[in-house]
Amino acid sequence: MSLKFSPVDVFEARHNAPGADAQAAMLRTIGVDSIEQLIAETVPPAIRLKKPLDLPAALSERAFLAKFKQIAGQNQVFKSYIGLGYNDTTMPPVIQRNILENPGWYTAYTPYQAEIAQGRLEALINYQTVVIDLTGLEIANASLLDEGTAAAEAMHMLHSQTKKKGANQYFVSEQVLPQTIDLLRTRATPVGIELVVGDHRQIDLSNEGFFGAMVQYPAADGEVFDYKDFIAQAQKNNVFVVMAADLLALTLLTSPGELGADVCVGNSQRFGVPMGYGGPHAGFFSCREQFKRVIPGRLIGQSIDAAGNKAYRMALQTREQHIRREKATSNICTAQVLLSVLAGMFTVYHGPQRLKQFATNTHLLAQTLEAGLKKLGVEQTNTSYFDTLNLRLESAEMQQALQKEAEAAGINFRYFEDVRVGISLNQNTELHDVANILDVFAKVLGKEADQLAEEIEAAELHVPSNLVRTSEYLTHPVFNTHHAEHEILRYMKQLENKDLSLAHSMIALGSCTMKLNATAEMIPVTWPEIGGLHPFAPREQAKGYEQIFSDLQAWLCEVTGFDAVSLQPNSGAQGEYAGLLAIRGYHEANGDHHRNVALIPSSAHGTNPASAVMAGMQVVVVKSTEDGNIDVADLKAQADKHAANLSCLMVTYPSTHGVYEETIIDICNLIHEHGGRVYMDGANMNAQVGLTSPATIGADVCHLNLHKTFCIPHGGGGPGVGPIGVVADLAPYLPGHAVVPVEGRTNGSVSAAPWGSASILPISYAYISMMGGDGLQRATEIAILNANYIKARLEEHYPVLYTGSHGRCAHEMILDCRHFKKAGIEVEDIAKRLMDYNFHAPTVSFPVAGTLMIEPTESESKAELDRFCDAMISIRKEIAEVESGKADAKDNVLKHAPHTAAAVLVHEWTRPYSREQAVYPMEYVRANKFWPSVARIDSAYGDRNLICSCTPMEEYADQQEELVQADKGPSY
User: Alpha carbon of 658 to those of 166, 544, 673, 794, 813: distances in Å?
Assistant: First the structure.
């Protein structure tokens, strides 16, 4: 018997699901002899890469984890007391294991199909309630990307809402976090807002030019200011006020809402989320109820289902970019859902008493530190503070000596240019940490620090009496019940069981790319060497991160064909915006300030026009042809018409319709001939990797959705990373950063942290490392194979709306369901019925209303693809019964979908179809039934009766009759 050695631990074979036999069978169904033939008939030869990707050889999971441990080991995890919105904290292990490391939570999709997302929706309602209660305002969203972008969104929202004609000045206190001021400058300039930065104690807000003002609470240097008079002056002059606040401090301090603020923003990082060298963290945003129709981001609301039971869903979706297009006031189309869930669950677990004790301990330790420093002769200048001391040293030499001594002891402080030092304590600080800090100062001063008492004495809060919080918060039972580990564990599991994720079945969402998030890719995220670094720590302490950034940028340049990449944008929408700012910066550097027209195809993602408007551009829509391609004749006409002012074309490739447009090179050349640049939306980059590239087709800039093509999990709607690649002459206009400057870049930042959501970059790093260039190309090929296999199986039953010249689709396709309307069946009915088959619906009504957009990804096996196709064919037969009159047009299995256990476990079944057909429509469902926890949700009802915080069940029952009789007007 001859034995042959062959590697077994090959990651690609686990990621690219269909094996050789399955691939052969699928190719036969499609009607081609090989994958090579399929690709040749799908991807235009003119745009094919001439050579394979030059990337390092693929590593096994074991080899990668060993190598990455060495890379991460180069990072030095110091005790960081830098503050500035980032603080050390501890994620409870029960939450880490059961949410952050649990694919039932991190592989779920954005809760557009609310009936199978009730768990994460409840978790987000909890988060919104935390923010509402602590900030003292009436309404909060389900998170934003970080504190800086939340502040920018507040500025834009208030600018759109002011009634003061011509008012375009926005005052920002110089004590706002420096990274926030930097980001505000970036966002203000393109839309004509003038930022006025100064001392809030001296500014005169009676100037009619002011529409809004922003202050920090506590301030950037730690001072807790009483803003009562400032807010009164603003209100007198019809100036909106934004307060950036610290959630932990608000357990002790009077809330911004009680002080009169209109909006409150901030970062929930210190509620159990590691610093992660800058992210991801959930920014928060709360405001007065008058802004509920314009609040940016996603808002979770309470409604009722078809049975009259309470149910949650995403509220007021008419504000979304794909609906409002260029009229949208924000390009934010996502939320930091996973991080919001973590912060919210941290609060559920600890409750108001423990949270307040965290804050109390932190403050008392700061007082203890102040007393010790005073004995050493160090001047502390903050008259009121929560957790941060502001120290004035005698000289620059002393500051340098202090930094050297502190870093030798593994400690980071904040160092000011004027020889001050900032020390921000946190809920992980203990008495021995205070002793260590005092020892560092004592050594520098040549003195002996006093021995600290073993117990800290009680003391009063070190703020003015009117700023001591007296109002209650977090009174809902959910925050006062689950404090034992068994209780929180069962609560999290109860919520998890209500959500369908990739742990249950494929989620074939067109344009959204629900790939396998391999466990090996996820493991490093929770390592302390990755999570424990402050984003403003000295860069020599982050050598491991430096290598990760450098390698990842080089690999993404190879994949895209571009010359430079910025990793800073922390979502696809921010990547779009950063890319457009690079184009804007290029034109302005050439003196072409008038070039502000962005040509955008009618089929583009809704964030495209919203981002263009935010970048100060005028949107001109380009028509699409009947086959879904860009209308080249109309494009040429628009390019000619706007030649003098043309800034760019925004194009998605393959197209949003799932087709490789064969005219793409000519399209790019046309724009260049008219002096414009080409921005390529990278949403469909997973159909390009290894086969073509943005640079090859002629694009100048492209954002990459790492949470799509490069396997960062969606996390129920976030986090994401949206880095951008550019050609050489656009590289100088990539994002910079005020706190951690980037060499050669003078532009402002687009994210609060210099490298955005740095701590999840290891996921994409792992994916590329373990796939290698050949594996990445095969992933693209199999994604195309899987999509065309589904097309071949379903096109007899559902019309496929768009295909290429050879009848092939790209990695996704659109099924046309509009003709079912004649029988009274809507595309939504199909989406809801799929839940009864254990599936999440594909993308509904985008980019064409009344359609389903399907994208299977390379991570799904032939067996899973067949299961999905069988379900879709079965549903088509159910539709046919309605069409033929066999099933009633209104009382049928589609209109009542999804079916809950409660709906079928009734004594008397009165529906014209069987219970078995309702819940076990195919045999495979019996073995592993996923039960929707609520029936079909009444979205319009929820919009009319907006409730976006926790409501006790008994209160809800009391309100039920009143709400049923509520306003029956049109939904918003």
Answer: 44, 39, 27, 16, 5
Tell me what pLDDT residue 967 has: 32
Instruction: Provide the residue type at 25 as one letter.
Output: A
Residues 6+ apart with CB under 8 A from 796: none
Residue whose C-alpha is closest to residue 703's, from 624, 756, 772:
756
Of 327, 324, 300, 322, nearest in space to 312 by CA: 300
Mean pLDDT of the chain: 93
**CA angle in degrees (0–180, nearest 5) for 214-217-218:** 140
Distance CA 222, CA 199 (A): 15
**Alpha-carbon distance 240 to 290, whole Å?**
12
Q: What is the DSSP letter of 96?
A: I
Query: Using an 8 Å Cβ cutoff, are 581 and 750 in contact?
Result: yes
What pTM was estimated for this model as a whole? 0.95
What pLDDT, in 10s, does the model give residues 862-902?
A: 999 999 999 999 999 999 999 999 999 999 999 999 999 99
**Own/partner pairs, 951-957, CB within 8 angstroms, 24+ separation:** 951/302, 951/310, 952/476, 952/477, 953/310, 956/302, 956/310
Cis before 280 (ω within 30): yes
Angstrom distance (rounded) from CA 137 to CA 145: 20
- pLDDT number for residue 732: 95
Contacts of residue 744, Cβ cutoff 8 Å, sequence gap at least 6:
731, 732
The DSSP H or E segment spanning 774 is helix 761-794
What is the greatest pairwise CA distance in the chain?
94
Q: Quick one: which H or E segment has residue 724?
A: strand 724-726
Strand ordering across the sheet containing 379-380: 379-380, 388-392, 420-424, 414-415
Other CB atoms within 10 A of residue 206 CB: 10
- From CA 674, how far away is CA 122, in angstroms rounded? 51
Which one, of 347, 327, 360, 419, lies nearest residue 127 by Cα? 347
Rounded to the nearest 10°, the torsion over CA 952, 957, 959, 960 is 130
Pair 849, 864: CB distance under 8 Å = no
On the question of a cis peptide bond just before residue 654, with omega within 30 degrees of 0, the verdict is yes
Q: Which residues of 893-932 are buried (b: 16+ CB within 10 A; e: fewer)?
A: bbbbbbbbeebbeeeeeebebeeeebbbbeebbeeeebbb
Quote the tokens at residue 373. 């420093």
Determine the Cα angle at 776 with ends 773 and 781, to 5°. Answer: 125
**Residue 175, helix vs strand vs coil:** coil
| DSSP of 859-872 | TS-HHHHHHHHHHH
> DSSP character for 98?
I
Residue 289: count of CB within 10 angstroms of its CB: 12
Structure tokens of 918?
Answer: 């309702």
Q: Are 199 and 225 in contact (CB under 8 A)?
A: no
The pairing of strands 597-601 and 646-652 is: parallel
Crossing angle of helices 35-42 and 761-794, rounded to 10°: 90
Question: Are 67 and 762 spatial neighbours (Cβ–Cβ below 8 Å)?
Answer: no
Mind listing the pLDDT tens digit for each residue in 759-812? 999 999 999 999 999 999 999 999 999 999 999 999 999 999 999 999 999 999
For residue 698, give every residue at least 6 positions away whose Cβ sits within 8 Å of its Cβ, in sequence order, or none: 664, 665, 667, 668, 669, 672, 678
- Rounded Cα–Cα distance for residues 907 and 895 (Å): 21
- Per the CB < 8 A criterion, the answer to whether 297 and 144 are in contact is yes
Own/partner pairs for 371-377, CB < 8 Å, 24+ apart?
A: 372/434, 372/438, 372/449, 372/450, 372/452, 373/438, 373/441, 375/449, 375/450, 376/438, 376/441, 376/442, 376/445, 376/447, 376/449, 377/445, 377/447
Radius of gyration of the chain (CA): 28
State the Cα–Cα distance between residues 86 and 92, nearest whole angstrom: 18
Please state the rounded mean pLDDT for residues 112-140: 97
